[in-house]
């Protein structure tokens, strides 16, 4: 049996859709030392049957309360999987968009922090101004502003809710930094910074 000397590192990239999380995750996989597995939301959505979409990627707004019990289970499954990979010595990078904009409070983030208790996990906030997010949506073929010239409500809600409570080990802004530059800052934080504490602080609910 393979001997595991220490658990693999875990990097959670949290931000809105089109904030650049996936690009940073790809750089981490290609440039960081060791094996880095990508276990983000997109991977879980790809595994989800069509009739249950968007599943774990359910956007804020409380539009599908019928899916919310399943979302709770899917988040637990994703984080339990992350924990298993780490305990087997594999590093994990996760791109996700945590929010509590459901029809009722599901307390998903706090519950997920408990699953990774005792493991080396860095919580990274990936920020990007909403104007840049809108530009990226248009470039990738997604709808832009409404007929009235307004930002669609779900996109505004993402921007408002995804960084609550805003407790991170590190934050990066993809409107001024490239994915490579963001990844370098993350690697520097892992190598030279103090031990990560964000998930422990969220678990203790220090934001209340």
TrEMBL record:
Residues recorded as binding ATP, renumbered to this chain, are: 15-22
The organism encoding this protein is Mesobacillus foraminis
Matching entries from InterPro entries are given as: CPT (IPR012853), P-loop_NTPase (IPR027417)
Query: What residues sit in the active site?
Result: 42
**SUPFAM superfamilies listed in its UniProt record:** P-loop containing nucleoside triphosphate hydrolases
- Which protein is depicted? Chloramphenicol 3-O phosphotransferase
Record's keyword annotation contains Membrane: no
This protein's source sits in the domain of life called Bacteria
* Lineage, highest ranks first: Bacteria, Bacillati, Bacillota, Bacilli, Bacillales
């Amino acid at each position: 049996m393979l001997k595991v000397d220490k658990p693999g590192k875990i990097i959670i990239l949290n931000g809105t859709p089109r904030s650049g999380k996936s690009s940073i995750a790809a750089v981490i996989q290609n440039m960081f030392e060791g094996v880095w597995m990508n276990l983000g939301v997109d991977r879980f959505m790809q595994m989800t049957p069509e009739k249950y979409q968007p599943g774990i990627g359910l956007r804020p707004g409380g539009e599908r309360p019928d899916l919310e019990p399943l979302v709770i289970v899917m988040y637990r499954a994703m984080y339990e999987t992350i924990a298993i990979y780490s305990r087997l010595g594999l590093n994990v990078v996760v791109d996700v968009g945590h929010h509590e904009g459901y029809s009722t409070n599901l307390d998903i983030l706090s519950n997920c922090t408990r699953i990774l208790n005792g493991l080396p996990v860095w919580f990274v906030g990936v920020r990007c101004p909403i104007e840049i997010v809108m530009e990226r949506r248009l470039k990738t073929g997604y709808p832009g502003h409404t007929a009235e010239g307004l930002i669609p409500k779900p996109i505004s809600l993402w921007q408002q809710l995804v960084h609550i409570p805003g407790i991170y080990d590190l934050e990066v802004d993809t409107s001024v930094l490239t994915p490579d530059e963001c990844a370098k800052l993350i690697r520097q934080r892992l190598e030279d910074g103090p031990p990560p504490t964000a998930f422990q602080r969220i678990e203790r609910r220090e934001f209340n």
